[in-house]
């Protein structure tokens, strides 16, 4: 999730790149950089200054030589390698003439780098991307034109990319290519552009074209030509763009949260990419903890706040079931004040999208002080928690702008379930064939989430019917319970309506007294283990006049007898259901909030990153 931009044939190259990067900052701001290319010279500037990276780059570029009509720029959201200048794009080949920018993940970068180093290449970063510069360098040295050199290089890589390459030996040409990560080309009189997203070039280009997977485009001042990986010509589809700039930055959506809800399949795919070796070993490149240390774990404690706490609740089921380890889940703001017991073999997992939530940082610090090994699950590379912890696993959900967490939640569950599988693998508590089946099942969840997203219209209709209701109870049992908690939190923070999340079996111990006509009970009823029991809970609330909304699987015929409204989701392996079932609840909360005129990206009284106790 990085932003990329390029321009050929411009009299205003530097301004085009810097303006474009400023508009792409929402895709990441760990660092920003540009390369300007003319015959025999590649000039590069890079800065890593967090949210100020583009501003710092602008100052750095005041010393840029003039007379460049072509260049590329990048704003980075770190996945491999810390957010430092050395890891900032563009990356150069050994000669310093070839510059590349890349968005995506090159899955086989480690093996490619070993081979390239053995052939004499020197690497200056710890990114997955730099291999591309050196692969292109090798093909160019065999006499291939830049277009063919990029094609040849891409045949060697696995993973996702939106890539742009330039070479001072073939100036006024950019070669760009795409697989999975987005890429558009724009044209205007005598100038050609590329970008990861339309907003970067919206006011410069007059026509826009979408690049499809495994297409390679050669851009020159006169326009572009596109080919497939084998060199056969292809036509790019022209886009009709009718957005203003603000809408364009939200990817054509009304707000960031809609964009982020829709990005959940991508967040899952990216988080799971590159996590399994050909021999079946589950692997985390960034996990600084040895297999022996993981084997010695005797007990797991998860600490987190808000939505991250709900992801931790899901992880308890997975780690207990698969790795047969005892798991406690703590609200991070409570953990350190409770004089917690940390024994030899206690593994503490801090879960935090930002990695900056002070409650969770203080909890993991306390655990570390008491001798625990700490793993941070963070969406932000080199966040405070990631730096301080003994080990880290990054979710790769991309930048989350909306205060309400959505895509980072499903990515956290995926990362935690992967860790549960790794623990099971090391402890021998699951058959290798079961681990493989769960791993592949996890990789299929993105498609089920996509199906749930397609049903948005029905959820919106149900929400419309319920505008006017003020009291909501979200219930679930077993793996439906964390989802009920998350559904209630989403409704509270987005719509400001009263909502409580409960384990379904707990209603009869008190809250049932509150059930009366006008109260809405939203039930997560997808869990087969507890299905009959949740149906009984719904019968109980219905008998007391509640309106019932149920999240149920496509094949559930029994639910209609107890529910007034049913939100259908595809059936999946129970352990994966929290990632699918949350989707209609996110859309429901969003639709209620929109119906009530709330600010869905910035709910009142809240902040995206909570750095106070
Ligand atoms: O960055 P973190 O994951 O540590 O944040 C934790 C909570 O502040 C966060 O999940 C909060 O509850 C969200 N607003 C929920 O949508």
Description:
The protein is of the alpha/beta class and about 625 residues long. Helices cover about 35% and strands about 25% of the residues. It has 19 helices and 25 strands. Helix 4 packs across helix 5 and helix 16 packs across helix 19 (about 575-595). The radius of gyration is 25 Å and the shape is globular. The two termini are about 30 Å apart. The mean pLDDT is about 95. Bound molecules: 5-amino-5-deoxy-1-O-phosphono-D-mannitol (M6R). 5-amino-5-deoxy-1-O-phosphono-D-mannitol binds near residues 354, 360 and 489.
The major sheet is characterized as: 8 strands, antiparallel
CATH topology of the largest domain: Glutamine Phosphoribosylpyrophosphate, subunit 1, domain 1
**Cofactors and ligands:** 5-amino-5-deoxy-1-O-phosphono-D-mannitol
* Rg, alpha carbons: 25 Å
Mean pLDDT level:
94
Number of strands: 25
Secondary-structure topology with pairs:
Elements: E1 3-8, H1 13-24, E2 31-38, E3 41-47, H2 53-60, E4 70-76, E5 91-92, E6 98-106, H3 109-118, H4 130-141, H5 146-154, E7 159-167, E8 174-179, E9 184-188, E10 191-195, E11 207-210, E12 215-220, E13 223-228, E14 233-234, E15 237-239, H6 245-249, H7 256-262, H8 264-272, H9 291-295, E16 299-304, H10 306-323, E17 326-331, H11 332-335, E18 346-352, H12 358-369, E19 373-378, H13 384-388, E20 391-394, H14 407-427, H15 432-454, H16 456-466, E21 471-476, H17 480-495, E22 498-503, E23 520-524, H18 531-543, E24 547-553, E25 565-569, H19 577-595
Parallel strand pairs: 16-17, 16-18, 18-19, 19-20, 21-22, 21-23, 23-24, 24-25
Antiparallel strand pairs: 1-4, 1-10, 2-3, 2-4, 5-6, 6-7, 7-8, 8-12, 9-10, 9-11, 11-15, 12-13, 13-14
Helix pairs in contact: 4-5, 8-14, 8-15, 10-14, 10-17, 14-15, 15-19, 16-19, 17-19
Bound molecules: 5-amino-5-deoxy-1-O-phosphono-D-mannitol.
Residues 305-308, 352-354, 357, 360, 403-405, 489, 493, 606, 609-610 line the site of 5-amino-5-deoxy-1-O-phosphono-D-mannitol.
């Amino acid at each position: 999730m990085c932003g990329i931009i390029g321009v050929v044939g411009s009299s205003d190259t530097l301004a085009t790149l810097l303006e474009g990067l400023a508009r792409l900052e929402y895709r990441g701001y760990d660092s920003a950089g540009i390369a300007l290319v003319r015959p025999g010279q590649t000039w590069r500037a890079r800065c890593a200054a967090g949210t100020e990276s583009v501003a710092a780059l602008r100052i750095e570029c005041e010393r840029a030589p003039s007379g460049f009509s072509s260049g590329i720029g990048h704003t980075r959201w770190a996945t491999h390698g810390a957010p430092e200048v050395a890891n900032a794009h563009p990356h150069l080949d050994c000669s310093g003439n070839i510059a590349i920018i890349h968005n995506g993940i090159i899955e086989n970068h480690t093996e490619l780098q070993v081979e390239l180093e053995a052939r004499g290449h020197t690497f200056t970063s710890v990114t997955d991307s730099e291999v591309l510069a050196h692969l292109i360098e090798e093909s160019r040295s065999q006499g291939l034109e830049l277009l063919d050199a990029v094609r040849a290089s891409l045949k060697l890589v696995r993973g996702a990319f939106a890539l742009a390459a330039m070479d001072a030996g073939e100036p006024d040409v950019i070669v760009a290519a795409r697989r999975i990560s987005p890429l558009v080309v724009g044209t205007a009189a005598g100038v050609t552009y590329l970008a990861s997203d339309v907003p970067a070039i919206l006011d410069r280009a007059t026509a826009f074209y979408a690049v499809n997977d495994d297409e390679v485009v050669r851009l020159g001042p006169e326009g572009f030509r596109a080919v497939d990986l084998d060199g056969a010509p292809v036509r790019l589809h022209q886009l009709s763009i009718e957005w203003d700039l603000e809408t364009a930055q939200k990817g054509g959506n009304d707000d960031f949260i809609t964009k982020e809800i829709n990005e959940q399949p991508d967040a899952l795919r990216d988080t799971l990419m590159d996590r399994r070796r050909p021999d079946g070993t589950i692997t985390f490149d960034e996990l600084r903890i040895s297999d022996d240390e993981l084997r010695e774990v005797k007990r797991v404690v998860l600490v987190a706040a808000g939505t991250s706490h709900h992801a931790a609740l899901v992880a308890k089921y997975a780690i207990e079931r698969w790795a047969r380890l005892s798991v406690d889940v703590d609200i991070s703001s409570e953990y350190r004040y409770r004089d917690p017991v940390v024994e030899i073999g206690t593994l503490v997992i801090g879960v935090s999208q930002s990695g900056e939530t002070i409650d969770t940082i203080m909890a993991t610090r306390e655990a570390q002080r008491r001798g625990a090994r700490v793993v941070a699950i963070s969406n932000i590379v080199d966040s405070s928690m990631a730096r301080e912890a003994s080990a880290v696993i990054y979710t790769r959900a991309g930048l989350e702008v909306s205060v309400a967490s959505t895509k980072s939640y499903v990515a956290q569950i995926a990362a935690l379930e992967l860790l549960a599988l790794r623990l099971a693998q090391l402890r021998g508590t699951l058959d290798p064939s079961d681990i493989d089946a769960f791993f592949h099942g996890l990789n299929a969840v993105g498609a089920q989430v996509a199906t749930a997203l397609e049903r948005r219209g029905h959820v919106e209709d149900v929400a419309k019917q319920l505008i006017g209701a003020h009291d909501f109870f979200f219930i679930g049992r077993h793996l439906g319970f964390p989802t009920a908690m998350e559904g209630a939190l989403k409704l509270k923070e987005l719509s400001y309506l009263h909502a409580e999340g409960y384990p379904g079996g707990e209603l009869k111990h008190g809250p049932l007294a509150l059930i009366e006509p006008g109260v809405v009970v939203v039930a997560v009823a997808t869990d087969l283990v507890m299905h009959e029991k949740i149906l009984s809970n719904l019968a109980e609330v219905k008998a007391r006049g509640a309106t019932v909304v149920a999240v149920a699987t496509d094949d559930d015929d029994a639910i209609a007898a107890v529910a007034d409204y049913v939100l259908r989701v595809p059936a999946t392996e129970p352990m994966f259901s929290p990632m699918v079932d949350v989707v209609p609840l996110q859309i429901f909360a969003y639709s209620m909030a929109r119906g009530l005129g709330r600010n869905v990206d910035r709910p009142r009284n809240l902040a995206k990153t909570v750095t106070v106790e």
